[in-house]
Amino acid sequence: MTSRRHVLSLAVVATALATGSVATYVLAQPAEKVIRIEAKRFDYTPGALTVKKGEPVVFELTSRDVLMGFNLPDFSLRADVVPDKVTRVRFVPDKTGTFTFLCDIFCGSGHEEMHGQVTVVE
Amino acid sequence: MASAINRRQFLQLAGIGGVGVVFASALPGVARAARAEDFYFVQLSDTHWGFEGPPNPDAKGTLRKAVASVNALEQQPDFIVFTGDLTHTTDNPVERRRRMAEFKEIVGALRVKNVRFMPGEHDASLDYGKAYKEFFGATYYTFDHKGLHFIALDNVSDPRAVIGDEQLAWLAADLRQQRADAPIVVLTHRPLFDLMPQWDWATRDGAKAIELLMPYQNVTVFYGHIHQEHHHMTGHIAHHAAKGLMFPLPAPGSQPNRTPLPWDPAQPYKGLGFRSVDAEVAQAAYEITEHPVIRS
Known about the structure:
heterodimer, B: alpha/beta, six-stranded mixed beta sheet, 22% strand, globular
């Protein structure tokens, strides 16, 4: 897969050089999917999301009120979610299933209910 | 002070010895501590004073009933420890202190006056333990009792559920004073190991504490947080979670979410209770007896 993509990239670069078209080369780079997740006491929006196995995504995490955590334990992925700041986390799902993400920074009386689900499909 | 043998005989005579389970962590030939003397203590946990809701229709009465049950133990324990979540969290600093004051007043009725407190995240995580310290003092500390070394660890005052480098350095320095075969009991709120990170049942740097404890041959951990009895080994270190006194929580991973188990009118206080721990110091062995909220 990687080697095929590498060959394709080389081909595109060669085309770009031949035609002088930089735009062709830029378009050939697959942009990673961005998923914005907003945290607030005591939930995430969206609370459920679906991604494809092997396709990298970038979570853009923001908090509307207080410092939160975003923890996806089954993938050893976590980040602090700071108010008024966008925290980007790259995620490459390597297994299918439905997995829980949760706030792991105690944030008040609904903290225990603050979680969501990532479903990874083929 | 009656010996542990007498106490065990008493428990059996009283018909409640059958629920006691002995956990021995000692290695063969462990050196006997010079001041070793058997005794027992009581662990109460997760009283969540201030909680209101369907999971416990007797939210204002359960703690008082538990205090009465402890007071009714025929032989009183040497000391009592509360392993955190004394109060239920609130954003209001005034209300937080009011709950702590009420809790302190209620448990002030315990006949045993040697009572040790520890914070849970509900007590300490929203203000880094400020109110807790005003009412109960230090959030981590050590004490020795009849040859047993107790270490109370704070893994909740930092809302990230970390012990932190400063406290870990303090722990390392304390452990350096101990013999490799010293009987050590660690008291803490959250599990030090990854019991169920998906439910926030973990301590982010708990593995560092376990690593520091691992060279010691006789270490046992008593903790709370998960509102149920649970026993787990990390190497030779035993970890025993206690029941709570407000609402029980489901077994790890047994249902999609960690919502409280519903109150059963047919069996009120089911899943709640406290425990007594008979310490056989020379063997670093502990007999745990689970007690219901109301003793029949």
